[in-house]
Write a structure and sequence with these properties.
Layout: E1 8-11, H1 17-28, E2 32-37, H2 40-54, E3 58-62, H3 68-76, H4 79-82, E4 87-90, H5 106-134, E5 137-142, H6 155-175, E6 180-187, E7 190-191, H7 195-199, E8 216-217, H8 218-229, E9 239-242, E10 247-249, E11 252-253
Parallel strand pairs: 1-2, 1-4, 2-3, 4-5, 5-6, 6-9, 7-8
Antiparallel strand pairs: 10-11
Helix pairs in contact: 1-2, 1-8, 3-5, 5-6
């Protein structure tokens, strides 16, 4: 990338998985990066690695995306130097629990709703005004096949991702006459993330859900996000639904072995 035309990308949930892979790929291609997450040590580790390896500017913001005042404080701290975000990647999200609705834990529901929906809304509301002011920008929401296709015991998680899908459509209608592009990438099952271990609250045995087939990898999703973000200005890839070759839907996975 021409350093005179360097763009700034903000990636939420960048300390692991898809977010980390995405931040790394953009840095590799010369973009300046703002990375966010709740774990300061992991943020600083990634920041140091990206700056050293790719010689780009990196800003880290440590906050809980579920808490509006923390989000406001973090965005305000960007100051003039980092205020012009060109690409916002709303990646932060999680699943908690895998129970039928009558046995679900309310604290799990609240965490998913606050992270997957409200956190995305907070970031979009605080970053998008500057994009509107300059008449350009790209918002890419990371959804899930779960937002398109419910599965047993996924109830609230699926509902939050369905909300992301509808919010993406709504944002697109709000922004398309203002010079902003809005896209969505919805992956199926992805390894090299903390998704399963978070869902099962650290239970490593239950989290072993990828051993009998080859799922997507974080870098696969990152490559699609990068492709979407780097199309010419007149092109907006609105929605991408992507799965492993061994996955045909949320409820259909060929578990007959890996590397088929």
């Amino acid at each position: 990338m021409n350093k005179n035309l360097t763009k700034t990308v903000l990636v939420t949930g960048a300390t692991s998985g898809i977010g980390k892979a995405t931040a790394t790929l953009f840095a590799k291609n010369g973009y300046d990066i703002i990375i966010t997450g709740r774990r300061a040590e992991k943020l600083e580790e990634l920041k140091s690695k990206l700056k050293k390896k790719y010689v780009v500017k990196v800003k880290s913001l440590c906050f809980d995306i579920r808490k509006l005042q923390e989000v406001k404080k973090a965005v305000k701290s960007l100051g003039e130097e980092w205020s012009q975000v060109d690409i916002l990647i709303n990646n932060a999200g999680l699943a908690m629990g895998l129970d039928p609705i009558h046995k679900g834990k309310i604290e799990h529901w609240e965490t998913m709703i606050d992270t997957n929906i409200k956190g995305l809304l907070y970031m979009t509301r605080l970053i998008s005004p500057e994009m509107v002011k300059k008449g350009s920008g790209h918002i890419i929401n990371i959804c899930s096949t779960a937002g398109n296709d419910a599965y047993p015991n996924g109830n609230v998680y699926c509902a939050t991702k369905s909300a992301v899908d509808m919010l993406t459509k709504g944002m697109r209608l709000d922004f398309y006459k203002l010079g902003l592009r809005v896209s969505q990438v919805s992956p199926g099952m992805v390894e090299e993330t903390e998704f399963a271990i978070t869902r099962f609250e650290g239970d490593e045995k239950r989290a072993k859900i990828y051993e009998d087939f080859t799922p997507l990898r974080s870098k696969d999703v990152a490559e699609v996000i990068y492709f979407v973000a780097t199309r010419p200005k007149h092109v907006n890839i609105q929605d991408v639904l992507m799965m492993s070759s061994q996955q045909a839907g949320s409820n259909f996975v060929d578990r007959s072995g890996r590397d088929k």
